[in-house]
Amino acid sequence: AFSVVSKLLSQHKLELLDELVSAEVLQVLKEKISLLPDNHRDALAADIDAIMYTTEGDVRIYYDDDGRKFVSILMRFWYLNGADLPDEVPGETKVFQVVFGDESTKEKRHLLTANYEFQREFTEGAKPDWTITRIEHPRLLE
After folding, report:
1. Cα separation of 71 and 122, whole Å?
2. Are 118 and 132 in contact (CB under 8 A)?
3. Distance of CA 113 to the CA centre of its chain
4. Up-side HSE of residue 60: CA atoms within 13 Å toward CB?
């Protein structure tokens, strides 16, 4: 889900996110993405093979005022991206020089982070669909 959503954000195809992302988050994303420079938008895309590490940041089970049960999982992702970002982008973990082919052909990759929160209702009879309720790409989507 992270890879698919990040690529759609990068391609500015927000209309395809209606079923995956909460309406509140989608509204904020529409405003932010329209203001992003192309290189930052390119850096949002995380190819599934470029995800280096994932970890859960927070897992919560809670009930609303009507007694409905929800589960929320915050996931953190680290991924490589070849967008043309300046080397001094704050918040980056590291810049890698990856060599493909011979020594004269170098391709720069940035190790970037993203936080996505997934939520699902677990009340009996509720649809088993997960919704993304938070999307953060530090230093890119601010």
Report:
1. 7
2. yes
3. 8
4. 11
> Rounded distance, CA 137 to CA 62, Å?
26
Find the mean pLDDT for residues 111-140: 93
| Residue 93, token pair as written in the block | 């973990």
Cα distances (Å, whole numbers) of residue 25 to 29, 53, 107, 117, 119: 6, 24, 34, 11, 13
Q: Parallel, antiparallel, or unpaired: how do β-strands 130-136 and 94-99 relate?
A: unpaired
Q: Say whether pLDDT at 55 is over 90.
A: yes
Top-confidence residue, 130 or 89: 130
- Other Cβ atoms within 10 Å of 30 Cβ, number: 13
CB of 97 within 8 A of CB of 80?
A: no
The one-letter code for the residue type at 16 is L
**Model pTM?**
0.85
Q: What is the DSSP string of 39-104?
A: HHHHHT---GGGEEEEEEEEEEEEE-TT--EEEEEEEEEEEEE-----TT-TT--EEEEEE-SSTT
Q: For 71-109, what is each residue's pLDDT tens digit?
A: 999 999 999 998 887 765 555 555 555 555 566 666 778
